[in-house]
Amino acid sequence: MIPPAARGAHHIDDRPRPHGSPRSPIAKAVLWACLALGAPISAQPAGADDGRAAKPASALAALPYYDWTGLYVGGSVGYGRGHTRNTLFDPGPVGAGNVFGSPYGAVHIGYNYLLPSRLLIGVEADVAFANFLEGADVAAIRPTVGGTVTEVVDYAATLRARFGYAADRWMVYGTGGFAWSQALLIESPGAVTEEDKLRRLRTGWALGGGAEVGIAPEWTARLEYIYERFGPIGVAFASGTRFESTVEEHMLRVGLSRRLGAADADAPASKGSDAAAAGSRHWNVHGQATFVQQGYPSFRSPYDGRNSLQGEHQSANTISATAFVGWRPWAGTDLYINPELTQGFGLSDVRGVAGFPNGEALKSNFPVPRFNVARVFLRQTIGLGGEQETIEDGPNQIAGKQDISRITITAGKLAVTDFLNGNAFSGDPRTAFLNWNVYGGGAWDGAADKIGYTWGGLVDFNQKHWAFRLGYFLLPVVSNDNTFDTHIPERGEYTAELELRYQLHSQPGKLRILGWVNHGTMGSYSDALAMPVTTPEYPDIALTRRQRSNYGFIVNAEQQLTRDLGIFSRATWGSGQNEIMGWTDCDESLSLGLMLKGTSWGRPNDRIGLAGLIEGLSPEARAYFAAGGLGILIGDGRLNYRPEKILETYYALSLNKWTTLTADYQFIESPGYNADRGPVSVFSARLHAEF
Fold first, then answer.
1. Among the three residues 268, 293, 318, which one is the final residue of a domain in this structure?
2. Phi/psi at 26 (nearest 5 deg)?
3. Domain carrying residue 633
4. Burial 128-159 (b: 16+ CB within 10 A, else e)
């Protein structure tokens, strides 16, 4: 999972949040497409932050025709529904058909040329990826004599010509060309391994059409339909089983594109562009792409278990790309949607360390990129009058002015740490500390699926010197699951947070106190230990699951010491009687750290961070893991208990306005709270781009 804080979302509280491994050329293409977007996207002019209605004039309307010529990049989301015809030889041929479907996310790049006649010709390439949920990428499953053969669609891509007609700001087009797709064929159980896997490249053709409209001088929105038909492939597994298939798929999707390289794209607002820029006060687009390469040398490991950090040296990488799209239909109401692509693997498949060293790592590993609508939520702000403050444009934040005294109601799909437990110096694993429990909650079992998101709502009552927040969020049906328990309100996570703002020697500081209660289907450490030792998988906590509660609190402080130096600390505690639902195996933690900007050595946009973390388990959890129990992240089969201690330091080098390169080092003593294993030195490199 990418922990919830790892998503880059709530800019008001300086908490950009929260994950895929660029082992394929497709993943690298996704990263570079996102880097190519690294330019100021929201057309918000200086001084246009009052949030009031735009003037009726429009720069788009002032143009005789919208300029469609040029290179563009963008993305789209939609739904694909396909059909596969396949034949299984086991040993004789047996034919079958199967219908499949999934939400898809895609990125595209293209070039248009508009003729004087208003006819448009162009070329476009795109690649689409299925939803991250298990089974969303499955095109067919066929039973065999001893198991199953499964066909998975890794991705689908096209290279197409476009022919259209442009009238003012509207353009309609037809499109067609070459298509290809990668298929993964799996036989389970395999003759060589537990699962024998073969990959094959399909080729075929694509045909479709769509409509596109200019919504700002360099931005267009589109609605598009694409039909893809792929030719046959065949594989022969080591067992002798053969499988052949063909695939066709229909895709309907909506998207945004940004034209690149225009002479006026980054020009200051002028009389001719003011109106168009003012229109952007009602919407914005931001994005990010993050790549993390992480590894460690071999360390002392006399034994290991199913959830141990591998003792042999290893490395792994992750990549994520997120779009933050916001729309303000009227004053006080904002709607946000965050399509996201993720790929990659955490070290040891995100196991073996409670304070896991990569905040971009997922609990669901994806060898190819997978799509997710990370967030879709509505925010209603109710001003209570009095003094106002300026809200700057940012991810999931449209610029304007708001009453300082206000009530904000947020509801939808989100990450709980977008709005709770924030910290200016340790809140973003994409730009600051990478370790889960340095930037995150430690013992706070924040509601989340395997990649860090949930559904819920929050009410925030804000005043000049304090704020109070109440939230309710859905828990997974069981620990570490992607399905949510919808028994509302008797099950779920309940949170309350008080934030106090103050000045210490003329420097700002904040103190946050958060309390939480989770009520859901949980197993008990003590009940699992009380089962007969002859029980299969003893101690199997899953056999003890029923309605239970966990609870705890966080004390979270940040203090500016000088203009460039800040200090932070978090103390967390959880009851530790029952299994963790969504975060990590931790019942108590204490962190302390510093963040220093590089002004004194002439690099004001660089940062250095240093933090220490100590965390532990409750007596009940210690006994459970010592008996061989498994948690979300840890379980060595036995346990010589010691607190897990972590030291992390990083240097973030600002390459330009949009890109940061970070070197990070973490020293982990007693990984998984086990003094018999470790210590481990983890080295990381991170490249982050945002716009």
1. 268
2. -60, -45
3. 4-42+284-690
4. bbbbbbeebbbbbbbebeeeebbbbbbbbbbe
Same domain, 296 and 258: no
Token code pair at residue 10: 């709530």
Give every CB contact of residue 637 below 8 A, 6+ residues apart in sequence. Answer: 303, 304, 305, 306, 308, 628
C-alpha 566/C-alpha 510 separation (Å) is 11
Which pLDDT score is estimated for 414?
A: 96
Host H or E run for residue 35: helix 25-36
The 10s digit of each residue's pLDDT in 475-531 is 999 999 999 999 999 999 999 999 999 999 999 999 999 999 999 999 999 999 999
Amino acid code (one letter) for 125: A
pLDDT tens-digit series, residues 75-126: 999 999 999 999 999 888 999 999 999 999 999 999 999 999 999 999 999 9
pLDDT at 11 over 50: no
668 and 685 Cβ atoms separated by less than 8 Å: no
Q: Are 308 and 348 in contact (CB under 8 A)?
A: yes
In the structure encoding, which two tokens stand for residue 303, read together? 């034994």
Q: Judge whether 383 and 332 are in contact, CB under 8 Å.
A: yes
- pLDDT mean over 364-388: 94
Q: What is the CATH number of the domain that holds 235?
A: 2.40.160.20
646 with 671, same domain: the answer is yes
Structure tokens at 173: 């087009």
CB proximity list for 200: less than 8 A, separation 6 or greater: 182, 183, 185, 233, 235
In a domain, 393, yes or no: yes
Is residue 55 classed exposed, middle or buried when 0-12, 13-18 and 19+ CB atoms within 10 A define those classes? exposed
Which has the closest alpha carbon to 589: 432, 434, 363, 436? 436
Length of the chain: 691
Instruction: Copy the structure tokens of residue 519.
Output: 């009520």
- Could you tell me if residue 243 is inside a domain? yes
Task: Give the C-alpha distances (Å, rounded to integers) separating 352 from 134, 231, 316, 584, 620.
Answer: 23, 44, 14, 11, 19
Distance from the Cα of residue 33 to its chain's centroid: 17
Alpha-carbon Rg for the chain, nearest whole angstrom, is 26
C-alpha to C-alpha distances, 579 to 24, 352, 443, 479, nearest whole angstrom = 37, 16, 12, 7
Specify whether the CB–CB gap between 517 and 550 falls below 8 A.
yes
User: What does pLDDT average to over the chain?
Assistant: 88
Phi and psi torsions of 517, nearest 5°: -135, 125
354 and 503 both lie in a single domain: yes
673 secondary structure, DSSP code = G
How far does Cα 134 stand from its chain's mean position?
A: 17
560 plus 443 within the same structural domain: yes
Looking at the fold, whether 21 and 73 belong to one and the same domain comes out as no
Q: How many CB atoms lie within 10 A of CB 612?
A: 16
Number of neighbours of residue 80 by Cβ within 10 angstroms: 23
**Nearest-angstrom CA–CA distance, 248 and 205:** 10
CATH code for the domain in which residue 666 is found: 2.40.160.180
Helix (H) or strand (E) holding 34: helix 25-36
If one compares 37 and 408, the residue with the highest pLDDT of the two is 408
Burial class (CB in 10 A: 0-12, 13-18, 19+), 525: buried
Same domain flag for 160 and 306? no
What is the SS3 assignment for 439? Answer: helix
